[in-house]
Amino acid sequence: MMTDEQVTDDPEVVALRAAHGDRYFISRVGALWMATLRQDDGTEPTLVRDTAEELEAAMANPRLWGGRLPGPRRPL
Question: For 11, what's the count of Cα atoms within 13 Å in the CB-facing half-sphere?
């Protein structure tokens, strides 16, 4: 039976979960690193990066949902 946390022995995944696991569910799928918000807070709900370092930087400073700052709409 699987829980919501996938079991892993990858030391980088374990370290990221220890540092950011209260806010994100963190996993590695092939070569991609992913973090999904556990609770909506208005920032990007899913982060996908190529390296653990890039993912950690994105989790430390997530962009607002949609990657746009609030303000007047621009013409398309």
Answer: 0
